[in-house]
């Protein structure tokens, strides 16, 4: 049976992040990708110049069209910029009984541009976090969800992951890409333990879309039947290699994308 994953997120007109990165990741990992657009951005490697929000009613219509026809194995949720859209997505997950959900709580782009209305964070906490198999915040996003300072080390990352579980998350992958050191360390915090995922930290500015790519790679693994730990480990390896190969691309004048198709190009 064909493994199918759906991304519910915003678009990136520059092609490096958002729905475009998700679909590239699904394809690279052998999963058929479908999509529900929740927002459109005017964006390139240098930043976001505009956001056009999709009406929540049309988000719901897209969800019903996709999930009523396709045998969806997993869902990745990315940029949802407004509270009503978050509500529409949460209702759609319940309506179509989706149990394998990867939530990337996208708040700020790599360029520093804000992508989530501050007032929508509470909806994210209340409606989507408890429904996700795993949430994948980076260090600033984890701090924003908890209303605390950014974690400085692995001990604080673990503590924040445990606090996210207390907030209702089933599992939290706290990503350390914004940290320092020779390694980029992510901690997968679960009720029964913590798994440390580490890769070398590569000296490149081409990191646009890394968070989108990691979360969609986890969703691809879940869609193929992998367990969460195995899917997270495979996703970490894929993203690390895509970052290592990113300088083989020459795209734009800012933070370029990772190389989703390093195996073929």
End-to-end gap: 28 Å
CATH architecture: 3-Layer(aba) Sandwich
What is the fold-level CATH name, i.e. the topology?
A: UDP-N-acetylmuramoyl-L-alanine:D-glutamate ligase
CATH superfamily placement: Ribokinase
Helix content: 25-40%
Question: Could you give the order of strands across the largest sheet?
Answer: 3-2-1-4-5-6
The number of domains is 1
Tally of strands: 9
Tally of individual helices: 8
- Unreliable parts: none
Question: Would you mind describing this structure in some detail?
Answer:
This protein has 265 residues and is of the alpha/beta class. It has a single domain (4-248), classed as 3-Layer(aba) Sandwich (UDP-N-acetylmuramoyl-L-alanine:D-glutamate ligase). The chain is 36% helix and 21% strand. The chain is built from eight helices and nine strands. The strands form two sheets. It has a six-stranded mixed β-sheet. Strands 7-8-9 form a three-stranded antiparallel β-sheet. It is globular and about 45 Å long. The two termini are 28 Å apart.
